[in-house]
Amino acid sequence: MITVRHLPFAQRGRHLIVLFFFSLVLLVLGFRGASFAVAAGPEAHIKGEFGPLHDWPIIPIAMMLMSDRRVFAYGTNTSGAQGGKMYYAIWDPSTGTGVDAFEVLPNTTETDIFCAGQAHIPASGQALILGGDALVNNRRNYANSDVNIFDPATDALIRQTQSMGFKRWYATAVTLPNGEHAVLGGRNDRFFKGTKTVPATVATFSPIPEVRAADGSWRTLTSAASDYAYGALGASSWFYPRAWVNPQGDLFILAHNGNMYNLNTSGDGVLTKYSNKIQPSQASLSSVMFAPGKILTIRKDRKAIVVDLDHAVKPIVSAAGLLAKDRQYGTAIVLANGQVWVNGGSSTGNELAGAALESELWDPGTNTWKTTASAATARLYHSTSLLLPDGTVITGGGGAQGPLTQLNGEIYYPPYLFKTDESGEFALRPEIIDAPTTQISWNQEFSVEASESITRVTLVRAGAVTHAFDQEIRFFDLPVPQVGNIVTVQSPASPNLAPPGHYLLFVWNASGVPSVARIIQMG
To answer: What are the φ and ψ backbone dihedral angles of 30, each rounded to 5 degrees?
Structure first.
């Protein structure tokens, strides 16, 4: 069991110094392909492999990769229960998965951030936490309008003085090209089934988006109100609306019922509905932006669809095959090579019957799916998956409520980390020797030097995942005009394609093996 630690800041600093030197040893070993405790089989280079199950101090209902390479997670108390007296965890992956790898701190903000909205703050590298649950007359599942910021420099979670205009529980926050944040959806009142003496009530929602400026002030997009795009109607469209910045600089919204919208966030906002729609989905199914302006979305009946936003008139829709498993509450994420990996879920919703232990991998180059490694345990409602700087994926959580209280995690090691000789051993990895250490701008050339010849350079935006949706992640394949130990590449063309923030820079060798990422700041 992981012990909750309330260490003074100075003591935490001394503790981290020790961990820093230990992490250097692990990092060097990782560059040289050390296999640690992962027992991989002969198909590891095809299916990947899960590491051993390890303890977490909380259920990581939400996880964010911070610019200092650590993971900020929150969701429950240390018993895995919903409630206002929550804790948040900070995990340093470079130190392993033992007790000392986690720092656990109490949420002293008086805000219940259970099922809040979240996004990165581009300039500071901090985490923006919006809304969450509330307790009214001793009843949970209302909402709040609070704004909180997690600062990785001090490990503090700080409540802000300027709140949102609306209460929001289960809202989506999207980083805009100018560094502001658009917030949409969420509930603002509790659904109550009623008793013999107290009548039932209908939950109310927040159908009006709002925008947070860089200075913390808010403005409401009163002209863009919609019950169907992100409100009460449209198959629970209020539930973490699926929204991304499109190549035109507006927000693209893919409703759970298949309708598609464009939201211009300037002024009071303008919402436009596209004439075409796609097959319905549900709030429990995942979608992810896997390439500039391109979204892979999982719909009902195991169908996958690609939505291409690089068209001014309307999105172009195409089929992307069938998944082997129905994955309600599973999570889709983009790997370091641009393929989409889907883990967890169940055919029966938040139940163990029909739970998928096998994961699946979609290759956008061939538009095909394949079954990959099996996890040790089910990942259902309130589970998460997040890409880490070493190219692995942390999967964790599930529960509160659910059939299992998952105070644990597993690390998935994708196929690109293994030798292809069926030995199950890790491949030797290239090492980034030199790359930008300050922020870079869009459409800018920059050089990267590695320990061996570079054949590919990829860029992945740091993720922020909750409830089967990582709205922050983006992927870019940066063209390499020449192969060598030093290459010059060009950053994405505009903030419409690559919103400002922190990105993982990977270099690849001739064997298709990535380096550990260097984190760079864009914009």
So the answer is: -65, -35
Distance in angstroms (rounded) separating the CA atoms of residues 323 and 298: 9
Residues 6+ apart with CB under 8 A from 433: 449, 450, 451
Residue 112 near residue 129, CB atoms below 8 Å: no
Question: Do the Cβ atoms of 277 and 259 come closer than 8 Å?
Answer: yes
Q: Is the pLDDT of residue 32 over 50?
A: no
Whole-number Å distance between alpha carbons of 210 and 341: 32
Tell me the C-alpha to C-alpha distance, in Å, between residue 264 and each of 178, 248, 261, 271, 497. 13, 10, 10, 6, 16
Beta carbons of 379 and 406 less than 8 angstroms apart = yes
| β-strands 218-220, 251-254 pairing | unpaired
Q: Which residue in 295, 308, 294, 303 sits closest to 326, CA to CA? A: 303
> CB under 8 Å to 169, separation ≥6 — which residues?
115, 116, 131, 132, 133, 134, 141, 142, 143, 144, 186, 187, 188
Categorise residue 158: left if φ over 0, alpha if ψ from -120 to 50, beta otherwise. beta
Contacts (Cβ under 8 Å, ≥6 apart) of 265: 176, 180, 182, 209, 211, 221, 224, 250, 251
Buried b vs exposed e over 59-90: b needs ≥16 C-beta within 10 Å? bbbbbbbbbebbbbbbbbbbebbbebebbbbb
Rg (CA), the chain: 22
| Helices then strands, each counted (H, E), the chain | 3, 38
Write out the DSSP string of 272-290: EE-S-------TTS-EEEE
Q: Pick the range with the lowest mean pLDDT from 29-33, 213-217, 344-348.
A: 29-33
Residue 189: its pLDDT value, please? 85
Distance CA 389, CA 336 (A): 9
Kindly state the tokens that stand for 423: 């030995």
Would you state the structure tokens that stand for residue 385, as one six-digit string? Answer: 């998956």
Name the average pLDDT for the chain: 92
Q: State if pTM tops 0.90.
A: yes
Distance of CA 74 to the CA centre of its chain: 13
The number of beta carbons lying within 10 Å of the beta carbon of residue 354 is 15
Tell me what percent of the chain is helix, strand and coil, each rounded to the nearest 5: 10, 35, 55
Check the CA dihedral 156-80-299-207 and report its sign.
negative
CA dihedral 15, 20, 22, 26 (to 10 degrees): 140
Virtual CA dihedral for 60, 64, 65, 71, nearest 10 degrees? -30
Residue 203: the pLDDT is 82
E-state strands within 131-258 = 147-151, 156-159, 172-175, 181-184, 210-212, 218-220, 242-245, 251-254
Distance CA 379, CA 294 (A): 26
Cβ partners under 8 Å of residue 181, min gap 6:
119, 128, 173, 174, 175, 211, 212
pLDDT digits (tens, 9 = 90+) for 149-198: 999 999 999 999 999 999 999 999 999 999 999 999 999 987 767 677 76
